[in-house]
């Protein structure tokens, strides 16, 4: 429990912040690490309450501890490829805080390889987590968002929703699907007050890239070569993607739906 002065400071910080998520209730998947952890922390700092879902139970507990108000987070073990787990995450938000206003479908896995190298099992796994997981997140969240009178779905795509790169065939296929699923959901539910947008990050400093970096000669070689293909010349930080999610969750983006919002350090401008 935070002391009263502490809570006052938090309230002031939220009010002075550009983005106010006071009253928003979110589910964030893949919340144990990287971008999902940064989104959870950013949402809570802006006044939202969050069900932080991930297969990594210890990781989501740690995410809650790192938030400015750990009491605003329910850490939950959930596998996004499992319909029962995704339904339970949505139900937890509604049971705990009475509504769901925001669904962030962020969890993903990446297993590098071209189509010859990628096993059928690995391809199925990427599709199950990265695309079926987003489908389930939309399927179970949209009815809850409608019960809340409308809301925002934020799907985590990638620059690979827009462009392919070498030896990432299965991941790229899954992320292309995420963008088109985003557009389908946006069209089907716009008139009912549910917005759905897709964030497309470039290379961000998180563990998901480690196997891919190995294929590219190791993470240090990737960092050295970055200026050649990501013009800002450095890896993105998870909080730089989280700030896009904050905007899409907020009432500053109420005219946006079906969009691919690119935050890639200029990678796709080349
Ligand atoms: N890091 C990048 O460069 C980059 C670039 C473009 C897009 N993205 C996307 O950003 C999102 C977040 O990735 P990240 O970079 O933070 O990576 P990360 O590896 O740090 O986080 C991914 C999280 O997803 C969780 N997860 C994996 N399978 C799951 C499942 N079945 N159910 C629930 N949770 C599961 C992991 O436990 C982990 O906590 C992903 O959708 C990723 O594709 C990342």
UniProtKB/TrEMBL annotation:
CDD domains: SDR_c (cd05233). Keywords: Oxidoreductase. GO terms for molecular function: oxidoreductase activity. It is an enzyme of class 1 (oxidoreductase). It comes from the Bacteria. InterPro entries: NAD(P)-bd_dom_sf, Sc_DH/Rdtase_CS, SDR_fam. Its EC number is 1.1.1.-. Belongs to the short-chain dehydrogenases/reductases (SDR) family. PANTHER family: DEHYDROGENASES, SHORT CHAIN, ESTRADIOL 17-BETA-DEHYDROGENASE 8-RELATED. NCBIfam families: PRK07231.1. This is SDR family NAD(P)-dependent oxidoreductase. It comes from Streptomyces sp. R39. The lineage of its organism: Bacteria, Bacillati, Actinomycetota, Actinomycetes, Kitasatosporales.
């Amino acid at each position: 429990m935070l002391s009263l002065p502490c809570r006052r400071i938090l309230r002031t910080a939220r009010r002075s912040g550009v983005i106010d998520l006071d009253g928003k209730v979110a589910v964030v998947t893949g919340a144990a690490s990287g971008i999902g952890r940064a989104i959870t922390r950013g949402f809570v700092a802006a006044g939202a309450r969050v069900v932080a879902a991930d297969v990594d139970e210890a990781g989501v507990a740690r995410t809650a501890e790192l938030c400015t108000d750990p009491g605003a987070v329910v850490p939950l073990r959930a596998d996004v490829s499992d319909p029962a787990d995704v339904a339970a995450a949505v139900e937890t938000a509604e049971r705990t805080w009475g509504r769901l206003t925001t669904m962030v479908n962020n969890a993903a896995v990446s297993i590098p390889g071209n189509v010859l190298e990628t096993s059928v099992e690995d391809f199925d796994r990427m599709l199950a987590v990265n695309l079926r997981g987003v489908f389930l997140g939309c399927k179970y969240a949209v009815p809850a968002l409608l019960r809340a009178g409308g809301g925002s779905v934020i799907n985590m795509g990638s620059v690979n929703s827009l462009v392919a790169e070498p030896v990432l065939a299965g991941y790229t296929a899954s992320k292309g699907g995420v963008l088109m699923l985003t557009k389908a959901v946006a069209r089907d539910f716009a008139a009912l007050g549910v917005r759905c947008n897709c964030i497309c990050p470039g290379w961000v400093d998180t563990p998901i890239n480690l196997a891919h970096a190995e294929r590219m000669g190791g993470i240090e070689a990737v960092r050295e070569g970055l200026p050649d293909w990501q013009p800002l010349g450095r890896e993105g930080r998870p909080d730089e993607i989280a700030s896009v999610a904050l905007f899409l969750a907020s009432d500053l983006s109420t005219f946006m739906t079906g969009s691919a919002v690119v935050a890639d350090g200029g990678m796709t401008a080349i």
